[in-house]
Amino acid sequence: MSSSTVSLYLDPQIRDWVLFPITVVMILVGILRHYVVLLLQSPPKKLPRNAIREQRALVRSQILRATSANSPLPPSYYKSISQYLSQAFADGTYLKDGPPKGDAPASAPPNPLTDPNAMEGMMAGMKTQMVMMVPQMIIMGWINFFFQGFVLIKLPFPLTLGFKSMLQRGVETPDMDVRWVSSLSWYFLNFFGLNGLYRLILGGENAADSSRDMITPFAAAAAATPQPGPAQDYNKLFKAERDNLEFSEGLHSWVATDVETRILQKYGRLSAGAK
Q: Nearest 10 degrees: CA dihedral of 167, 170, 172, 176?
């Protein structure tokens, strides 16, 4: 008998007690683990005051240099601020650890395996990974135990035989139409196909995305807890900024230079050649 003449008729109870429950359970579990992951995430730690002061001092100097060509500050004020910042950078006033000592060795970058902040982020990522993996393992065991070998639904569009192994897992019947979907294959279709529904319900940045189950715990740690970039040597940055400040002093131009003359010339109260 050819596969084109084989017809299957499914009991409506399979739809009501197998197809719908598997779909609803997977949707509810995805929403539940999204909120569990949110509860497990710790709030980001605040930077100490000295670290913020160190960063803001560099930003302040960069803004001062960026506006030197059309500066709103008069030359005396600009020069005073520039020299103050240059001297503070030379003395290490804004460094979070204080001025460096002359005989002190250069500080090595922190080891991520001994850094408490990095280890805390890694543990948070592993807990998130467990929340992702354990529910899927339970659901797969539940389907294999209760619904092994069930045929649930027939797809309404034709497919090639290459999809047979993907859509009919657990059902070894070579004569069955490739459009029929087994219970285990329906689980995998929901596993990868519900992400659009999760984004619609929970938003784009949700923790119910099933694709996160495929990554390693260390990658999950990086995704769940944003880690700071490599440590910057602000002592070297401040020394380079001193040279930039000295160079920008020669480019300083006050935006209000001869502003009275320019306004009078603009409105025709003074000829263009008059001073």
A: -40
Measuring CA to CA, which residue among 181, 148, 153 is closest to residue 167?
A: 181
Query: Cα–chain-centroid distance for residue 82?
Result: 37
Residue 10 tokens, joined = 């499914």
Spatial distance between the Cα atoms of 187 and 198, rounded to a whole number of angstroms: 16
Distance CA 267, CA 82 (A): 36
Classify 153 as helix, strand or coil: strand
pLDDT at residue 114 in the model: 63
Q: Is the pLDDT confidence value at 217 over 50?
A: no
Alpha helices in the chain (DSSP H): 12-14, 20-40, 49-66, 75-91, 116-146, 164-167, 183-193, 195-202, 217-224, 234-249, 259-266
Give the pLDDT score at 185.
92
